[in-house]
């Protein structure tokens, strides 16, 4: 007889494969380039004098600073436990279980699908088309022909794991066509690494635009779990009804607020520039040797002769990468997060060695 939890779990979740998160993987690599983390760390001081109190629902100084950083108003912003909570919250707020649909455009970030599944929300996949761009006609056709309402369309730009920026004209085409019908969620987790402008300047024109942001990537704060959902006030108000009562713990608020100081923002911009230089160098080395996807994130996707063997060879050299082979069209593709200069020197040497031995 199976254990109690196995008997009690909701049947639709029994076979759910959880997200393969960075630390869940275990193992004893020395160089972790599997989760698009930022290799740099910064020092922060904590003031514990308010730790006996519940925190502010939305810490005002944090909201003021992020609103200024992003160029939006405080009413257009909700701080969450990472961008992942924003994804989950959008689905829980707008999609009825067993009824509504989301659209996503694979190959892309895995949590859109997992959050939909855990909330019994249908998923329609409209794969990225030429040049890994969103297939606007395909999405609109899917919305039109769907038997159940499509409430959310997820677009990731720069896209994880391919690295492509989504063409702004395609995003505006979606926003225009779905204006009265569905929210278009543009996930800008990696926007600081991109040369392309954010779509946030479209917020005043589109009631159906939602943007996801995070401090996990450019700000090097994946460990504190702080993200932001940005949209017009009516959307934010609905989300604020559903989110947990204290979404931003006091220590998180303190660190995040300090991270958004003018001085730290300029430090972050310098570090992003350094990482982008290392990304260009990595791409230059491997482009003549194998297929390297152009990237606007802090990672590069490459096709190798055999992804499993490559992962193993790299792990022997102490370097942990991410195998993306299960994603549509990405067979034998590995994703390499950009680390420090020393980490990249070792990674370039080990990957060159693997490619030489497998040719
Ligand atoms: N969106 C994308 C595209 C991501 O790659 C990630 C994390 N890898 C997230 C959202 C979630 O970020 P957070 O750490 O803020 O939850």
UniProtKB/TrEMBL annotation:
Question: What range does the record give for the signal peptide?
Answer: none
Q: Which reaction does it catalyse?
A: L-histidinol phosphate + 2-oxoglutarate = 3-(imidazol-4-yl)-2-oxopropyl phosphate + L-glutamate
Q: Where does the record place a coiled coil?
A: none
Residues carrying N6-(pyridoxal phosphate)lysine: 217
Query: Keyword set for this entry?
Result: Amino-acid biosynthesis, Aminotransferase, Histidine biosynthesis, Pyridoxal phosphate, Transferase
Q: Does the keyword Translocase apply?
A: no
Q: Which cofactor does it need?
A: pyridoxal 5'-phosphate
Give EC number(s), comma-separated: 2.6.1.9
- Domain named Aminotransferase class I/classII large: residues: 32-351
What the entry lists under Pfam families is as follows: Aminotran_1_2
Q: Which PANTHER family match?
A: HISTIDINOL-PHOSPHATE AMINOTRANSFERASE, HISTIDINOL-PHOSPHATE AMINOTRANSFERASE-RELATED
- Oligomer and partners: Homodimer.
The molecule here is called Histidinol-phosphate aminotransferase
* Organism annotation: Echinimonas agarilytica
Q: Which gene encodes it?
A: hisC
